[in-house]
Sequence to fold (133 residues):
Amino acid sequence: MLKEILSISGKPGLYKQVSQGKNMIIVESLLDGKRMPTFLRDKVVSLGDIQIFTNTGEIALAEVFENISRKENAQVCPVDNKADNDTLRNYMQEVLPEYDRDRVYPSDMRKIFLWYNILINKGITNFESPENS
Fold:
């Protein structure tokens, strides 16, 4: 499911690809439903391709979302996006104890928790990739 959800550098929120043109893709915001073009120069990343550093390697973002979902019973994450760094680190420690404290920054944690809440608010609760299902 996360392969279809996109993050676009410099643009807030998450997007879903709607259509594709010659040098662009049309995306729809999960926040407000507005559609817009995204061009080749924009850095677009699928959430399904994102990995989080751990002490033993890397773990898929989907697994982190699954851990949060289990902890919160598929409800929104209680950590505020503007929370202090210690609060972010403590919550991350609860959902992913083996995360690499030197390579996963508070700004990354903010994105993870914000993205999780956007997906939950849109009713997207299946974070498994099709090959894992």
Observations:
- The chain has two domains: 2-47, 51-121.
- Strands lie at 5-8, 15-20, 24-29, 35-39, 44-46, 51-54, 57-60.
